[in-house]
Amino acid sequence: MSHNIYDHVNVSAELDNWSISIRLDKRDAAASIHDRLKGFSNDFSIDTLIDFFLLESRFYLMQKHLVNSAAAIDNAKKHLVHFKNTHKYYLHLAEGILFYDEKHYPEALNCFEKAEKYLNQLNNPVEIGEFHLRKAMTYYFLDITTLSALHAERAIESLKPYKTFEFLLARAEMLQGMNYMDLHNFEMSEEHLHRALASYKNIDNQSFITTTNLNLGLLYVQRELPETAIRYLEEARMDKQERIHLKILYLLADSYWKTNESSKAVEAYTEGFQKSIENDNLTMKWEFAMLHKKYEDRMNYESVWQEGIEYFRKINDFFNVRLYSKELAWHYTETKQYELATRYYLLASI
Known about the structure:
InterPro entries: TPR-like_helical_dom_sf, TPR_rpt. This is Response regulator aspartate phosphatase C. This protein is mostly helical. Helices cover about 80% and strands about 0% of the residues. Among the domains are: about 1-120, Serine Threonine Protein Phosphatase 5, Tetratricopeptide repeat (Alpha Horseshoe), CATH 1.25.40.10; about 300-350, no CATH class.
């Protein structure tokens, strides 16, 4: 009897530690705990087995194993008849995170709204803060900035007192910085992004330090401070983080051209253009080509920008359609080509 109680306490503690490791993106620690728990999962009670599968789904997501993550959710659903309200919350949360990682943002939001019905079952402020962070991230990618900002603020308030979870707080601060950037409140954006950067440096998370440096670079590009942008973008460039490296090179090339450092601009452009071809990234290939025509090959500026915008229309990349159409429309207005200006102003408003 005492041996069974001892095992139960150990499993509960391991599940708690596993949950924390997953939320803090501590991949090695999470993998080690997963291996230990799997070793005696056959002895779990039904409640514990459900908890295990739902956490396992999130564990596989942090390992980028989406198929395994979905399988873990299906394993949990085999025991739906035994679900308590907290299990229902964690199920919808796990489904939402999976949809989010698959970039299916409307479906993710639907799952998070289902989970929210059971949010009052939680008494852990950190878990509540993480929920608001997840919902804020989803609203951000749905381009619903005001609601993203609302939930990001609720996440920050919930997470701020808990130093152990500084990683989650930093993510909320960074997201809020991006929200304020989209709302053109650049002072608040700068404040939140610098707080995020300080936290990531404090916990020595190099991946997110690089991402935040990129975001600060983007902020200073938008504020028309290219010299300041270059400082943060060069910091980000040093890490050679594959996921965001092309974006860094694009902003660097643009900033160097704006500061009349053409040789450095061409170097960043050439590296980025070649990598976009190697990676078969047609969107970035067009973005680099259009950037080059803007600064170095004005003879082909209009034709290449028209072709690029048409490509973005074909792939339903409405963000880039609006972005580049607005600038091209302004060019046509300046050159008194009003019919073309009207056409691209209309495209900029879709």
